[in-house]
Structure prediction request, 310 residues.
Amino acid sequence: MGEQFELSGTIGGRRQHAVVTQVGAALRRLVIDGMELVQDYPQHLAAPACAGVVLVPWPNRVAGGTWSHDGVEEHLVVTEPERNNANHGLLRHSSYRLASRTNSSVTLAADISPAPGYPFELATSVHYELVADGLQVTHRLENLGTLMAPVAVGAHPYLRVGDTPVGELTLFINAAQHLEVDAAMIPVGRPLPVDGTDLDYRPGRRLGDVALDNAWTDPTRGGDGGSRHHLEAPDGNCVELHMDGNYGFIQAYTTQTFQGPEGPVHAVALEPMTAAANAFNNGLGLRWLAPGEAWEPSWGIRHVAADGSR
Prediction:
């Protein structure tokens, strides 16, 4: 995963430590007051199951790698051949360059040049910064070309609450609709209400051995326009994923075979996404940047203690 950028600090009386990798600009580790909030993996391995990587200029999948732009059919490289999809953007395996760094923050940058199926030019960066209760992440995309460019952003962090087994965690997804998908994991039709279904995670559901690879939308938004979702341990400690108003979608993915430091572990990813899977075709959440326009969506991870403090 290239160079490992270690961040550390004591902010508001809380001790923080994070590790971000050069390849994929991936979040590999986050520790607050000794509590692990992100599932780690051996340093010599490539990020297992896209752990922590930045997904740009689209998250999730594009069906068949094919979409149309101004009447021209575009063909992206198929990177998920078993389902015939272009998956998770163009930079997940790229080495980012260091743009700036302090003890408690790092900014990594990478450019997107015109590529098969994506004839646009972008400057991208991601800024990781430790804050009092966790980590704040801000992406920046700027259209360097002369054409309107379709863009979306996602990330793929695997969250944990210390040593609590994932199956004992309760998942809260504060969203009113979910996306039905076909066998290739491509959304079909319009989003559907979660009311009365086993995909209503607003009141919380214990993960157990449930297999999830599901997306939700229509999040419950706070006064700042953002939304909050979390995993809660039996002792009341929580890890919270918060997303600003640019993020209208969240994906939850579970695996029993995540390669942890001491072997395979049960892991769960909560993925902030500004757009749905197949957004280049269905338009759900897709944003178009004008030439010279920049966009800065933001999300983060917080530890919420059992007494509700941050």
Notes: The mean pLDDT is 96. Helices lie at 279-282.
